Amino acid sequence: MDLVKPTIGHHCGNATPCQVIIHFIITYQSQQMSDQDCIKFLQSCLPQLGYQWTGFHRVRKQVCKRIQKRLVTLNLPNCSHYYSYLEQNAEEWKILDSFCYITISRFYRDRKVFEILQHKILPSLAQNAFKENRAEIRSWSAGCCSGEEPYTLQILWHLDLLPKISKRLQLQLVATEQRSDLISRAKRGQYPKSSLKDLPKTFREEAFIQSESKYILKNYFKTDVRFFKQDIRQQLPDGSFDLILCRNLVFTYFQQDLQLKLLEKFIKKLRPNGFFVLGANESLTPNEDVLEPYLDLVGKSIYKKNKY
Prior knowledge:
Layout: H1 17-30, H2 35-45, H3 53-56, H4 60-74, H5 79-88, H6 92-99, H7 111-131, E1 136-142, H8 148-161, E2 170-177, H9 180-188, E3 190-192, H10 201-207, E4 208-211, E5 214-217, E6 225-229, E7 241-245, H11 250-253, H12 256-269, E8 270-277, E9 291-293, E10 302-305
Parallel strand pairs: 1-2, 1-7, 2-6, 7-8
Antiparallel strand pairs: 3-5, 4-5, 8-10, 9-10
Helix pairs in contact: 7-8
């Protein structure tokens, strides 16, 4: 945190700027939260919000940093006092819930997953669409953050799949995200170089225009992507889908009972012979009557819905 350094001209007499600064430093230092304090606080609060601690273990610093800032804003000395504040102010739980939203995303994240999407799943879905005389494939990117995931799919579709297809076929993408600021960023389609570090160079050069330190996505990759502000715990998009991606969200951070509840809804949304994609480190309890693991190249993170 940047602090104003007193100059020789400052006086430390009656309520001077010097005293104000010193008071601020003392207050800020007294509100410093240790890692262990934050862990105990999260282990107590996360279940009340429907989250599980195991999912936050490696990313807790992002959440703890937000909580630390909140302590300073509320002028509370520690997590114990914040917990008391939560008990007395029900609306504060919504603010704490927003602190627990993890934003880690980039183009082509988990390379093996996107290679399977590119070379196996998208071609398979195209064949299914042709057999059923459909002019489009419908996909849903749940928890799309700043649009990196749905736009990656469109890049693969336009630059690799479409040139190989003789018939006209669209990949229609619905992308949902609970934060308005991330949706606005996604619609702008402007990204720092770090967001594209995993994207193959040929795709990066064809899909983006570089402007100083930003990479701007070309407009025709945005055309078939529609963004909606939705909290997946409360609302799902309309219609059914050939492909659903729910990576590093529900099956990492949510409690198991909520995972199972949402999984039932995902299955209903997924068309027969459709694909359900999780994060590379996520998996489902085997249920081969409905969903069966697809291949075994990326663990058990990709599933295919049986036709019935």
